[in-house]
């Protein structure tokens, strides 16, 4: 007979997902419960279930924790991958944030296409995140806090226990006699999240027992508002875009200032770039949008930049250019890979009449155009061509001896143009973007 006094799990059966699941497994209470909960589903095991443990090496017991996770997964017949990472101590963002970033990078590397990365966040985590964001003055997007589902790397993040309080996870662990690791850093209130967990939330719950549920509910309401705003932002942004990565300043300026800030952040986020900081929004409003039509103003952050040119905003990587000392021979039979990640190719013909020398711009070049008896400064021709100034430094120049034959496919001199016409051929230059 079952013992009526034995604890029971308040968690429902795990849902049957048709896709494989990778569990982020630290060995602590939360991830141990998540892994055990999913392992009880025969359908999930059949669809695919494995785990990853990120070994930070920040604690003296880190090796023992990895061994514990390996033993647990072996006992439950779940494949485990242990990924060792180095956490930078001089990143300027603090050790906790740096560890979080390298952990996400490790997850992204091992997540397979179409997989769900299951993480063990629960309602208490949601309440803490909501409070942290509120204390930082976040708006609706920030107060939406932790999302139950989100695209991530080659798959997605899934947090199936987000609606459950930590007490439910603890009860499940007791009901199944699970063993887990206690991280001693959780007892320190030095980190903001731990301070909230150890002092603030317990105090609030003395007066308002459902405080964690209320904060989690506010986060969900913020997420609902965010989804509505995101849908509207997507439609409006599409009308402001000239092409991928390019916004029309005039169309953008017709939007209210508050909406412009959302559109700019949405534009950057949808391109997979680091979040646009508040200083960036302010710089765009103050310096880029009001600039003259021929201005060349920009704002840069974390290896990305937004640059205004000829009435448009461009979202770009940091300045790219071909190395000044780069020079190669090319006969045109195969595409030429350029140092910036771009490419130069000959279409319509097997090869050029004679090999050419391909090198970077150095300044002062001149070229003779078809139908002209004199040469022109390449700088002037590129300005007239409408090629953005940052791409001019990426242009590969083709030479026959000392004679400039072409600048990519944008300016082609008389001798080469005649040969291309006779052979029904053309050059195609693709500038690098990263």
Poorly predicted runs of 5 or more residues: none
- Taken as a percent bin, the fraction of beta residues is 15-25%
Structural class by secondary-structure content: alpha+beta
**Total of DSSP H or I helical runs spanning 4+ residues:** 15
Q: Taking Cα atoms only, what radius of gyration do you get, to the nearest Å?
A: 29 Å
Q: Terminal Cα separation, in Å? A: 66 Å
Number of strands: 21
Shape: elongated
Strand order of the largest sheet: 3-2-1-4-6-5
**Residues in helices, as a percent range:** 25-40%
Task: Please describe the biggest sheet, giving its number of strands, its sense, and whether it closes into a barrel.
Answer: 6 strands, mixed
Query: Overall mean pLDDT score?
Result: 89
Condensed summary:
By secondary structure, the protein is an alpha+beta fold.
Characterise this structure.
- This protein is α+β, with helices and mostly antiparallel strands.
- Helix content is 39%, strand content 20%.
- The protein contains 15 helices and 21 strands.
- The chain has helices at 29-39, 42-47, 62-75, 95-110, 123-135, 140-143, 166-175, 192-207, 211-240, 249-253, 257-270, 278-288, 378-385, 389-392, 414-422, and strands spanning 21-24, 49-55, 80-84, 116-118, 149-152, 155-158, 241-243, 246-248, 298-301, 304-309, 312-317, 327-330, 336-337, 343-347, 356-359, 366-368, 375-377, 397-400, 403-407, 411-412, 426-430.
- The strands form five sheets. A six-stranded mixed beta sheet has the order 3-2-1-4-6-5, sandwiched between helices. The protein has a five-stranded antiparallel beta sheet with strand order 7-8-11-10-9.
- The longest helix is centred in the middle third of the chain and has 30 residues, at 211-240.
- The N and C termini lie far apart (66 Å).
- The model has no long low-confidence stretch (mean pLDDT 89).
